[in-house]
Amino acid sequence: MEETITIKELFNILKKRWLIIVLTPIMIGLTVGLITHYLLTPFYQASTQILVNQKNSEVNMMELSSNVDLINTYSVIIKSPAILDKVNKELNLLQPREQLTNKIAIDMHENSQVFSVTVEDEAAERAVDIANAISEIFQREIVNIMNVDNVNILAKAELVDSQKPISPNALWNITVAIVVGMMVGIGIACLLEYLDNTIKDGKDVEKYLGLPVLGSIENISVKKGGQGSKSQTVGGETLES
Asked: Hey, which residues does 44 pair with through a beta bridge?
């Protein structure tokens, strides 16, 4: 026969195991907070904006059907050895091209020839340097690569004194950890209650053993005397010891 639990019983379980429910999310939240602060590597972000305004638009529009195609083409060029090898050499990064490529994202501005180059790196200053170097080298090299003769850098990346990392987000991580910890605490409380098969009162006897309760024994009161003596009341008679 399937056992069901009422809301009242669940409330009593939570009330009984409240310490576990409170301590579990606190411990998990604290652990995640320490891991986020001391073990996870922070990443910083820097962005530049570039405008490509082609004077020879008829030729290019015959080759590329839309601005979306143009941005996709610029994205491939920026992540190509023709640009990144020069960035690596100019900044003395000594990073594999694949690693540098993974740090770069190209974002298109809808219905325009403006796009953003965003770089993520463990060091805020290096992210700014890489973003600016990519923009400048792209501006210089695209003339020969695609015969594009009018490239402008609209906004350079700047290093801000109070710049914060974009990841990891400590507040978000701790909040999620506390919510998960609360769920884990409730789960542990319910599991402990389920595994507890001790008989506590007459209701448990009727529920688990299916036997009627004929009588019950009250708690024996103990009174301490002056010299270690005590009296116990059992069945109306007082016993001294």
From this structure: 121
Peptide bond into 96 cis (omega under 30): no
What is the rounded CA–CA span in Å between residue 128 and residue 46? Answer: 5
- Tens digits of residue pLDDT in 191-218: 888 887 776 666 666 666 666 666 666 6
User: For 77-90, how does the pLDDT look when each residue is reduced to its tens digit (9 = 90+)?
Assistant: 999 999 999 999 99
pLDDT more than 90, % of the chain: 42
Burial of 142: CB neighbours in 10 Å, binned 0-12, 13-18, 19+: buried
pTM score above 0.85:
no
| Structure token pair of residue 52 | 């490509």
Highest mean pLDDT among 9-18, 123-132, 196-205: 123-132
Q: What six digits make up the tokens of 98?
A: 């694949």
Residue 216 in tokens: 């019950």
* CA dist 189 → 182, 195, 240 (Å): 11, 10, 43
